[in-house]
Write a structure and sequence with these properties.
By secondary structure, the protein is of the alpha+beta class. It has one domain: minor pseudopilin epsh fold (3-Layer(bab) Sandwich). It is built from 1 helix and 12 strands, in the order αββββββββββββ. The longest helix is centred in the first third of the chain and has 52 residues.
Length: 185
């Protein structure tokens, strides 16, 4: 007499594996796209938090604070009242410097941050410096003296290093230091 065994046949297992493989192949591109968008948004949110922190430091310490973006490995000069502070940055790094009023030099407020992997600055001008005054007001210092409020260009652009044509655009409002972050193609 035939006894009934519990379990699945080989054919049933192969069908289930085929269905799982099909669903996984459909969801992989969606997951990759989600990951890229998330990476761009994370970059924008990191910049937003750095601007907020720099403005808070300027107001609370009653001292000028500068946010410096490095789009390449270079050295910048931060000058105040004729005293110069030389700073060096690495590719895709963001630094916050606070003015030490005792000796009129700029000191690093916190460790520099790097953009997430596989993202980079594609800012219209080269290295940019944003200056927060003790009142919280924002001023801008660029390589060519361009003022973001007088141009139609976005202040900062971050792109993902892939074939995707999406970028993260960051606009900074001058009088409030508010940062607007959006991702678009």
């Amino acid at each position: 007499m035939y006894t009934k065994r519990k379990g699945f046949t080989l054919l049933e297992l192969l069908i289930v594996i085929a269905i799982i493989s099909f669903v996984a192949s459909l969801s992989a591109p969606i997951f990759v796209k989600f990951t890229r968008n998330r990476r761009l948004k994370a970059s924008g949110q990191m910049l937003q938090s750095m601007f907020t922190k720099a403005r808070s430091v300027a107001i609370s310490k009653k001292s000028e604070t500068r946010v410096v973006f490095f789009v390449d490995d270079t050295t910048e000069e931060l000058t105040k009242n004729g005293v110069s502070t030389s700073i060096t940055g690495v590719l895709n790094s963001i630094h916050i410097y606070r003015l030490d009023r005792s000796n009129n030099t700029f000191v690093l407020h916190e460790e520099p941050r790097l953009l997430p992997d596989r993202t980079r600055f594609t800012t219209p001008a080269a290295n940019k410096i944003y200056i927060f005054l003790p009142s919280g007001e924002l001023h801008f210092q660029g390589d060519k003296g361009n003022d973001p409020e007088e141009s139609d260009d976005t202040d900062i652009v971050i792109e993902e290093l892939s074939n995707e044509d999406k970028s993260c655009y960051i606009d900074v409002v001058r009088n409030t230091g508010r940062v607007v972050v959006f991702v678009r193609e």
